[in-house]
Amino acid sequence: MMSSQETEYHSKDFEWQELRQQIENDPTLRYHFLPYIHQSILSSSSSSSLDSQSWNQFHARHVTGKFFKERRYLFKEFPELASCEEYSKVLEVGCGNASTALPILRGKENIIVFACDCSTEALERATETIHASNVVSAERRFRPFCWDVSTCHFPKWLICDSCHETAQLKQNIFLSDFGNNESDCTTDITSSKESDCCIGGVDYVTLIFTLSAVPLHRMSTAVAACFSVLKPGGLLFFRDYGLYDMTMLRFEPDQRVGFREYKRSDGTRSYFFSLDSARDLFLGAGFTELELEYCCVKSVNRRKQKMMRRVWVHGKFQKPM
User: Fold this and answer.
1) What global pTM score does this model have?
2) Residues 6 or more apart in contact with residue 258 via CB below 8 angstroms
3) Has residue 134 been placed in a domain?
4) At what angle do helices 275-284 and 219-229 cross, to 10 degrees?
5) Looking at the domain assignment, is residue 35 inside a domain?
6) CA nearest 125: which of 66, 172, 176, 75?
């Protein structure tokens, strides 16, 4: 059940358009908006390998797992998670150290979380975090696996070709009760495997501060893969860095590797989304837009006594029935 301790959720501390005008009129920040001439792009396999190495090293440096705070706001931002049916299946893409998976497992005692990441170090940290928690049956309900969603579709055990075709057939003949009927590939939480072929797809996908770490030219592959494993009517929850967020403005000119795309000294990437760029990605994959907005939040760095203006993009998308 949900914790009795409420977590405040707010998203409109300031107006994004006012921030935009201020930033774009600042000559010292003009380099962020200049056209960028792309260099030659590495092959997907080479680029993916470098990304995995960078994130392995990142999580090895932050071995305590305290770098990422548990995202307790998720049930307020995405209330569907709080009201979902028993034994609903969530796919957490880019799980990191389980800062998203843990509050989901804590908030619903019967929900099942499949969690993937391209970093084996991240998966080790996530597994340690879940095992160290006092969440009811968390170890059985947390299913981690190593996967880079930006280079290929998800493994067949999530949804096999036969079940995918069956779902499409039901979709085409408008069976309105599809979401209420269990597939032949149902999940038994007490068993070690889901079924003989696959788990029949998932009810929800969470894409929380993950897509921004993927090279821009591979984002559409990642979103299409998420679409393919969702059941018809399933929801994708999206939250990521928004245009003009303070972290974007901290990047130096030589850290630009694309338009609104940057690379840190440790090799990890960050892209900053506008509403249009996010919309194009998800609608292009076949999703229906339910919600899409900027979250503009003021936070205080107590150590430096400095006010910070954070911008994130919040999105909720649905796979059509």
Assistant:
1) 0.84
2) 36, 38, 216, 271
3) yes
4) 50
5) no
6) 66
